[in-house]
Amino acid sequence: MCGISGLFDTHGQRPFDRALASRINNIQAHRGPDEDGLHLEPGLALGHRRLSVIDLTTGQQPLFNEDDSVGVVFNGEIYNFQALVPELQALGHRFKTRSDTEAIVHAWEAWGPACVQRLRGMFAFALWDRQQQTLFLARDRMGVKPLHYAWLPDGSFVFGSELKVLTAHPAFVRSIDPLAVEDYFAFGYVPDPRCIYRNAHKLPPAHTLTLRRGDAAQAQPQPYWDVQFINDNPIDLADAEAELRERVREAVKLRMVADVPLGAFLSGGVDSSAVVATMAGLSSTPVHTCAIGFDDPRFNESAFAQQVASRYRTDHRLEIVKSDDFDLIDTLAHLYDEPFADSSALPTYRVCQMARKHVTVALSGDGGDESLGGYRRYRMHLGEEGVRSRLPPGVRSPVFGLLGRLYPKADWAPRALRAKTTFQAMAMDTVQAYHHSMSHLRTEQRQRLFAPAFERSLGGYQSLDVFRQHAARAQTDDPLALIQYLDYKTWLVGDINTKVDRASMAHSLEVREPLMDHPLIEWLATLPSGLKIKGGEGKYIFKKAFEPLLPHGVLYRPKMGFSVPLASWLRGPLAQRMRDSVLSPRMLASGYFNARGLQTLVEQHLGGHHDHATALWMLIMFDAFLRQAQAPAQAVPQAATPAVAMPA
Questions:
Q1: Are 501 and 430 contained in the same domain?
Q2: Would you say residue 230 lies in a domain?
Q3: Do 253 and 350 sit in the same domain of this protein?
Q4: Domain boundary among 223, 250, 276
Q5: What domain range is 416 assigned to?
Q6: Could you give the C-alpha distances from 126 to 5, 75, 158, 170, 369, in angstroms and in order?
Q7: Tell me, what CATH number does 531's domain have?
Q8: Active site includes 195?
Q9: Residues 11 and 151 grouped into a single domain
Q10: Does position 555 have pLDDT exceeding 80, yes or no?
């Protein structure tokens, strides 16, 4: 696991300054503390920060082929590289290392841009072919590893694992994209391929970008893979359970190859528990497991993690984080480079910090909810779809639209009585309704929050357009498959994978996600949706498959999630910080917000009349981003000390 960076002159062969190339590379030294590598030649600079995981002695980068005509900088892991090596050797390629990185170089020589089709893993890489004067960038299918890029005013091209590589370049213009602001206040993150800055981009998952010197101006990302939901696999339940266990076993086994200490996150949820159970069956020694608990019982899953740890006799480490552990706001803003509002980034940072004390590589259960129908919102959406399918839009839209307008917003009421959102969604079409349910701040809330001048600057753009564009490519009319596809393209990449990558890399920890193994994803997409959600039970097939390996109480308990007590924080110890941030001169002068709207949110939340915790947290993190954006780019600061109480 590493950090990559680079500069490319798209027009000619102007030399790049070594000090500049070194500075933008080392701005992400946290991603690779073991070694740094730099290669410069006319019109090109390639940088690499290395976290040594495989082939500790000879895997330095940039890594070149036999005649130094093809080189690569690479972030990630190629899990099938050991199978590729003999195939490439048979084609005449000679290997000088034992690293998976070298397989990429020779795969390019053998298959050109189609090499990505042969790679199984998580990756972002930039490859230079001197003979073809071509720079080739690629990102893995599920977007586990990040890759950012921009064209600079002089026509040169800059790329890096993190956005801070781009902002560290003195020619990069930090002009905020208003469309990204709209997206952020809808989703809580800026979805790919957009960045918070106008001229910066994220290479989308499962895409490549090819730049040829002298012909790079029109270069556009090109897709090389997509998940296709077939949902017509005729397999019976027993065979599906057995095959699912075996496919998970293979995905886990591939990810247990490392030359450094390896372990797993164990939250006590279904997915991480299944990964740990599978690892235990593959390991001759106890699996190292790490868990974070909270001193607030409403958010503490550590007892369920302990059940799994005890069953498999893992070397289990638990740390209890105090419920007032909110001193990471500025650290997170610096780490994520653009506004990011998932408050579970706080405990994710802490569990990565703790895990790194014991292991260098950790397996996680991320991706299971999206592939197997684990979220409560999936079941609610299917219920709404049942009503939509029975009522014509001409009846449904006006009736439920009126109910949605008249029904009061009742944050204080039991969930079953909070019908306003449901009524609003019932008046919408499928894609609009799912966007409504996924929006942190819904359309009317954003309109009240934004200043009229800023609304006009959007030119009619709404974040719904993101979902519309992806839905048009989904090629499925299955209600569950459609929203799973939308989550793959937005939530999983922009929120989950971004959160885990930045939090883990802040501590030089490599996290591997077996449930995002693309052959597993492809196979799951063939299963009928009725095997994923059945009788109101999410992850039905997954839970049935792992019944022999996990306690019933772990498999079938209510989903808790990795949450923090935001509402109480913002009325208690964070109240003054919240007021100072949301109503700061910086926010009021930004031009984005309606000042009276900000004041109302603060007053209503502090008065206990409404729960505006989500909106206020988003505003706090946006203010923290603005403060960072106005400061000179700098390396990630040393990790903050956690507030930890060891369990009795």
A1: no
A2: no
A3: yes
A4: 223
A5: 376-487
A6: 8, 9, 11, 22, 31
A7: 3.40.50.620
A8: no
A9: yes
A10: yes
Structural domain total, the chain: 4
74 in a domain, yes or no? yes
Strands 134-139 and 148-151: unpaired
Residues facing residue 123 across a β-bridge: 76
Q: Are residues 69 and 157 in the same domain?
A: yes
Buried b vs exposed e over 428-453: b needs ≥16 C-beta within 10 Å?
A: bebbbbbbbbbbbbbbebbeebbbee
Higher pLDDT, 525 or 394: 525
Calculate mean pLDDT across residues 492-500.
98
Kindly name the residue from 2, 115, 195, 290 that is annotated as catalytic. 2
Under 8 Å between Cβ of 422 and 388: no
Q: Which among 487, 504, 523 is the end of a domain?
A: 487
Q: What pLDDT shows up at residue 417?
A: 40
What tens digit of pLDDT does each residue of 200-239 get? 999 999 999 999 998 866 689 999 999 999 999 999 999 9
Could you give the CA distance from residue 288 to residue 278 in angstroms, rounded to a whole number?
13
**How far is 269 from 597, CA to CA, in rounded Å?**
39
CA dist 597 and 605 (Å) reads 12
Q: What is the pLDDT of residues 42-72, one digit of tens each?
A: 999 999 997 766 655 666 889 999 999 999 9
User: Encoding tokens for residue 351?
Assistant: 């569990």
Instruction: Indicate the SS3 state at residue 521.
Output: helix
**614 and 587, same domain (yes or no):** yes
In a domain, 333, yes or no: yes
The least confident of 42-51, 251-260, 501-510, 554-563 is 554-563
Contact 485, 470 (CB under 8 A): yes
